Structure to design on (336 residues):
């Protein structure tokens, strides 16, 4: 089949000459020599052919297709499983168990399908090692993989915290440009994601320093080798906050909504500010306490129109701020 994608006449002959709409699915498209040019030339023939392509090396796919497919391709980002999807995917499973599995082992479909915890860890190891080998070593030819791995450990410990690039540079003995390059790689390979401050008052609000989250908590826990259950963890609040951020992303399919955080110069903070076509909402994530924080009163002084909400495991029913709902998924449990 590989030869079909080297000759356009042979490819069209293979599909047939009838005028019916055809769909061609290509996985691991980055393994082709010039996939972008091939797809461009087919597209420009104006045939009734739709291509859906995917692959396991995001950076290599972009490198081989971006130049030729501008204005010709629509890109969809397929996130890991959302909470509702996980309930269906790992069924039969209780809501409490699903939350624990997602916080500890993440939400890669292959990991979710495993019923044994050891197999889940092995799957995560395979995913991580494949990522390091394919994207970093083979494609990017990263020569300081040890430094990159050390940075991942620091970032995994600081998920949801303000990202201090200067501190990272000092800790790792790497220059600022190298740190910025590594962070850029993490974002473009969908390992981590940065969010930026929400502000209007430049003198009283933080305006530049971002926060960083991992897009899969299982991968984050693998990096730290921390797979303890809820009761034995000191970082459960961080994990739940990270989980909610990935929920906001997973349920905003077209990436229309904007997610920020809010922090004043005197360190009053709210975890997420979510902007949608319906307005702006301030969301605070709490593992245990359900009462509204004092920061809600403060932010209303700045933005009287803003809506506020506290999210806990008990009231995780609707993610209203992203224009979607998780129906019948309230987590009712009292002891963890």
């Amino acid at each position: 089949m590989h030869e079909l994608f080297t000759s356009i006449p042979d490819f069209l002959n293979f599909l047939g000459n009838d005028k019916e709409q055809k769909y061609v699915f290509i996985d691991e498209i980055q393994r082709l020599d010039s996939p972008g040019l091939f797809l461009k030339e087919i597209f420009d023939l104006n045939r009734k052919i739709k291509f859906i392509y995917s692959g396991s090396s995001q950076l290599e796919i972009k490198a081989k297709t971006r130049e030729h497919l501008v204005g010709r391709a629509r890109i969809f980002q397929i996130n890991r499983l959302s909470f509702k999807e996980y309930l269906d995917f790992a069924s039969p499973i209780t809501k409490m168990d699903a939350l624990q599995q997602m916080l500890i082992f993440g939400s890669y479909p292959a990991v979710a399908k495993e019923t044994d915890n050891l197999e889940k860890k092995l799957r995560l190891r395979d995913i991580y090692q494949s990522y390091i080998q394919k994207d970093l070593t083979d494609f990017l030819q990263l020569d300081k993989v040890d430094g990159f791995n050390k940075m991942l450990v620091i970032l995994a410990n600081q998920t949801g915290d303000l990202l201090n690039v200067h501190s990272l540079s000092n800790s790792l003995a790497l220059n600022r440009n190298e740190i910025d390059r590594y962070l850029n790689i993490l974002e473009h390979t969908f390992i981590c994601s940065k969010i930026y401050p929400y502000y209007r008052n430049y003198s009283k609000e933080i305006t530049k320093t971002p926060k960083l989250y991992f897009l899969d908590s299982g991968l984050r826990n693998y990096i730290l080798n921390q797979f303890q259950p809820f009761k034995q963890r000191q970082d459960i609040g961080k994990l739940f906050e990270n989980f909610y951020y990935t929920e906001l992303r997973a349920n905003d399919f077209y990436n229309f909504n904007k997610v920020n955080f809010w922090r004043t110069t005197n360190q009053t903070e709210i975890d997420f500010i979510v902007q949608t076509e319906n307005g702006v909402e301030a969301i605070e994530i709490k593992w245990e306490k359900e009462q509204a924080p004092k920061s809600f009163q403060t932010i209303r002084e700045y933005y009287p129109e803003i809506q506020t909400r506290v999210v806990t495991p008990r009231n995780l029913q609707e993610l209203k701020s992203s224009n979607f709902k998780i129906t019948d998924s309230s987590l009712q449990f009292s002891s963890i």
About this structure: Residues 2-65 form one domain. The mean pLDDT is 88.
